[in-house]
Design brief:
The protein is mostly beta strands and about 250 residues long. It has a domain of about 160 residues: Lipocalin (Beta Barrel), CATH 2.40.128.120. Helices cover about 0% and strands about 55% of the residues. The protein is built from no helices and 18 strands. It has a nine-stranded antiparallel sheet, with no helix packed on it. Strands 3-4-5-6-7-16-17-18 form an eight-stranded antiparallel β-barrel.
Length: about 250
């Protein structure tokens, strides 16, 4: 993938609390608003495997993958991906002629990733929320370069569906607690997340899950669903556009 040519994307990074999501883009053409990927990218779809008594354990996502996907403009690409576990988070490293690097957090059957073009994803962060039955958001977040994840829960105070205002509380990776306000606004097919500490990001909603990328125009984001066979299927995008691409990652 490619941040500028292939898959340029982004979000702002780290809530006051230090939240992040990643970025990645790739493609044969350069666009400051539409991420594209020619050689590598990300794509997400999610499913949950359960037994009669309890959810089946998820496969270990660490390892090497072959990826194939589509850019927002309809172009296709192929490449490789390596997923490396670092404590509570994962490093995602794509190679499609150009390298992309990002940080990912696993939350149930979904892995949310923020990435950037180059050998590091500095400045990119990601948060993944589950939408609970009462409309609250229960999230896990991480930022590039830190091996621990943070958590955040947001209770809606106004609005309907995903849109509206929330009171949020959470914990940073060092265990320190925090409070913040969160507003979720429509952004075409996506959603804009704005925290009261002047941090904002863009999210993709799939069912009861929302993956949000933070870090600005440099960063892209992808939401993968982990399938029972270990395959990851994702949807990815970038800051400044509601167009998305898809990606399937199959373990080598």
């Amino acid at each position: 993938m490619k941040l500028q040519s292939r898959h340029h994307a982004a979000m702002a990074v780290v809530l006051l609390i230090a939240c992040v999501i990643g970025c990645k883009s790739a493609g044969s053409s350069t666009s400051s608003t539409t991420p594209t990927k020619t050689d590598a990218a990300k794509n997400t779809s999610s499913t949950t495997t359960t037994t009669n008594s309890a959810p089946a354990p998820l496969p270990d996502i660490a390892g090497k993958y072959n990826v194939s996907g589509s850019n927002p403009d309809g172009g296709v690409y192929k490449g490789t991906l390596e997923v490396i576990q670092h404590g509570d988070v994962y490093q995602f490293r794509w190679n499609a002629g150009t390298q992309y690097d990002g940080v990912g957090v696993a939350n149930g059957t979904v892995v949310a990733v923020a990435f950037a073009n180059g050998k590091n994803g500095k400045g990119c962060g990601v948060v993944d929320y589950e939408i609970t039955g009462d409309g609250a958001l229960d999230g896990k977040w991480g930022y590039w370069g830190t091996n621990e994840a943070g958590t955040e829960k947001a209770a809606r105070t106004s609005g309907s569906g995903l849109l509206g205002d929330y009171d949020a509380t959470g914990k940073n990776p060092d265990g320190q607690g925090y409070k913040t306000k969160l507003t979720v606004e429509p952004a075409g097919n996506l959603y804009r997340f704005v925290w009261s500490n002047n941090t904002d990001g863009v999210g993709i909603k799939q069912g009861n899950n929302v993956a949000v990328g933070i870090g600005g125009a440099r960063c892209g984001f992808v939401a993968y669903e982990i399938k029972s066979d270990g395959t990851m299927e994702g949807i990815w995008g970038g800051y400044g556009t509601d167009k998305t691409g898809t990606e399937k990652a199959t373990k080598q």
